[in-house]
């Protein structure tokens, strides 16, 4: 057990989520040189990957951290139905430049409902439901993800205070509850597309994501990795 301080100055016991880390190895990528470490959630068996920049953050700055939920359709196939693959590329670019870690969380496909259910939800979206309504029609949570293992992995890596690369304030709140202090939210908004605009609008309106949706790219265009700068956030 570990302890967390309450608002009144007292402390409360907080259970440590069991995780186990493997060896640290070099990971040269299209985005630059990184080091990688696989982690196993001993409670669920899920395997996650920490991809870290060897660059040390500037003095006085907390490291950048991205909790990236696995998205096969977006990360691997470049689906335009979401912004996941482009957020992944954008986060790796920033982490390489400024120092920090991207924690790739496997088993969180479709905000935790799984790949097959995500495709079922897509079918419902094509019938007119938004992403929240589609999950509800399937009798599934709108967001079934758990960040306890992620928080413990960050703690094991010594990342107790971070700058969180995310548009989702729920991640900040849940990390704080698990003992990781988010000192800054760094937006990861990338240009929207005609194919994902309704999806992103739903996340903004119904899930409180911090999105401006000011830029929309024409259907069929694809921005290359590394072309998103801070002015676009």
Automatic annotation (TrEMBL):
Which EC number applies? 3.5.4.25
Give the start-end ranges of region Disordered: 212-233
This enzyme catalyses: GTP + 4 H2O = 2,5-diamino-6-hydroxy-4-(5-phosphoribosylamino)-pyrimidine + formate + 2 phosphate + 3 H(+)
What's noted on cofactor binding?
A: Binds 1 zinc ion per subunit.
Q: Which Pfam families match?
A: GTP_cyclohydro2
Q: At the top level of its lineage, which domain of life is listed?
A: Bacteria
- Residues involved in GTP binding: 66-70, 87, 109-111, 131, 166, 171
Q: What is the protein's name according to its record?
A: GTP cyclohydrolase-2
List, for all copies, the residue spans of the domain called GTP cyclohydrolase II.
25-187
Its function, per the record, reads: Catalyzes the conversion of GTP to 2,5-diamino-6-ribosylamino-4(3H)-pyrimidinone 5'-phosphate (DARP), formate and pyrophosphate.
**Residues where Zn(2+) binds:** 71, 82, 84
User: What keywords tag this UniProt record?
Assistant: GTP-binding, Hydrolase, Metal-binding, Nucleotide-binding, Riboflavin biosynthesis, Zinc
Keyword Hydrolase part of the UniProt annotation:
yes
| Phylogenetic classification of the source organism | Bacteria, Bacillati, Actinomycetota, Actinomycetes, Micrococcales
Alphabetical list of InterPro entries matching this protein: GTP_cyclohydro_II, RibA, RibA-like_sf
Which residues constitute the catalytic centre? Answer: 143 (proton acceptor), 145 (nucleophile)
Report the cofactors. Zn(2+)
The entry assigns this protein to a family as follows: Belongs to the GTP cyclohydrolase II family.
To which pathway does this protein belong?
A: Cofactor biosynthesis; riboflavin biosynthesis; 5-amino-6-(D-ribitylamino)uracil from GTP: step 1/4
């Amino acid at each position: 057990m570990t302890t967390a301080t309450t608002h009144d100055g007292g402390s409360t016991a907080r259970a440590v989520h069991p995780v186990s880390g493997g060896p640290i190895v070099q990971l040269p990528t299209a985005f630059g040189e990184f080091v990688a470490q696989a982690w196993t959630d001993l409670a669920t068996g899920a395997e996650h990957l920490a991809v870290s920049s060897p660059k040390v953050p500037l003095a006085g700055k907390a490291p950048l951290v991205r909790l990236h939920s696995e998205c096969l359709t977006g990360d691997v196939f470049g689906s335009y139905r979401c912004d996941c693959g482009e957020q992944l590329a954008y986060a790796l670019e920033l982490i390489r430049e400024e120092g920090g870690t991207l924690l790739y969380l496997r088993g969180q496909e479709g905000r935790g409902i799984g790949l097959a259910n995500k495709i079922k939800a897509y079918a419902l979206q094509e019938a007119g439901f938004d992403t929240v309504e589609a999950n509800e029609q399937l009798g599934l949570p709108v967001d079934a993800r758990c960040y306890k293992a992620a928080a413990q992995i960050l703690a094991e890596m010594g990342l107790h205070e971070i700058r969180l690369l995310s548009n989702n304030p729920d991640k900040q709140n849940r990390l704080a509850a698990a003992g990781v202090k988010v000192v800054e939210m760094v937006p990861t908004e990338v240009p929207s597309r005609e194919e994902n605009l309704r999806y992103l609008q739903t996340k903004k309106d119904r899930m409180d994501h911090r999105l401006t949706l000011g830029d929309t790219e024409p259907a069929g265009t694809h921005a290359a990795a590394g072309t998103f700068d801070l002015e676009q956030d």
